[in-house]
Amino acid sequence: MAKNINKQKDPLIHIVKRDQITIGKTIGIKVMALLLAFIVSSILLAANEGCNPFTFLGSLFSGSFGSGLSIWTTLKDLAILLGLGLALLPAFKMKFWNIGADGQALMGALMAYVCIYFWHGKIPSPLLCIICLIVAVSAGIIWAVIPALFKAKWNTNETLFTLMMNYVAIQLVAIFINACATGGSNTLPVLYEGSLPMIYEYLTPILIVAALTVIVAMYIRHTKHGFELSLVGESVNTAKYVGINVRKVVIRTLILSGAICGLIGFILTNGLNHVVNTSSTGNKGFTAIIVVWLANFNPYYMILTAFMVVFLQRGTSELLTVIGSTNDSITMIITSIFIFFIIGCTFFSRYKIMFRRNEEDEIDNKFFRFLEKVCVPVYNFFAMIYYGIGKGFKKIFKRKKKEETLPVETTEEANEIKEDEESISLPEQENLDMKEGE
Prior knowledge:
Low-confidence stretches: 1-6, 408-412, 421-438
Oligomer: single chain
Radius of gyration: 31 Å
């Protein structure tokens, strides 16, 4: 019996890496991702809370910029989240997955408060502030270096190690509260001695983190240590081959990471909260992991990603107040939806999906063929609007550029004419003088 030999077809879906993508397309993909995230979030809020999209959009902006206090609070939250992200950045560049920023900052906050608790009224406030800073930074370094030593010596799993250190830090704070809380209230007294000098509202922490952003960016991009940790992250074997002491780099980088976490803990205790508890960091250390990844390990892009997260968190919290809901999980859900779509857009900016096509150059599947007919016109419509706006901005900037350069060109022409007049040779000038004398 003759056997039927079926030709093996190619897979229906191919994922192909993009060779190159323009900045305009990258921005367009991210704008589309934000728009889709807003639509999905609006549908979810309408179904569960009866909230319309305009109320949702208004709450997002009013929560962050509705008043002067809202603006300062947004900037303060941005500074703390960005600071913890900057602490994780050097370790992540080295592919040391330090997820213990919460615990390291919490230990810094705890030790700063311990100094205030036992020495307030005994030491001048400025000196106490300096002591708290040194002790908090040292505590953060110790809490970060412990996993680094185990990683460098016995190659332990740094992810699990730093995660467990978070819970140990929380329990140490709880033990201190139970031992020192007064009146059986399980809360510590708010102490303002040793406070960080505040210029205006939360301006001091904001300025500190702004300077820290520049310092970390310069350290990673323009120093020998930054090059070494990046090389260790790319290939440990290559780093060893060129003579880099990998253990030393790991420990040195985690010292920096822990120091920044300790600094953030000091800011929380001496500048913002003036007390410590198990939720002082607000789990921002875990959120900072997402901030670093979304920014693709770029310290300046981290400002934008951190702002987006804070903007969503404060906006959804304001929305709960507006609609009178007590469902606190909405904040986490909405933020997660936006992050999910942004991560998805990062994928599509690096890769593209190709479908198997038949002889008529149509997708070889009825369902996907239908989706193509529906989605492509919608995509083309939004692309036309997007590129139309882009062309409009280009024309405006070109026109302004021409107006700015016109006087310069006129001046250059005048100078050229003057130079031509002055370039007449000396014999020609003498002949002209003789003619005038005749």
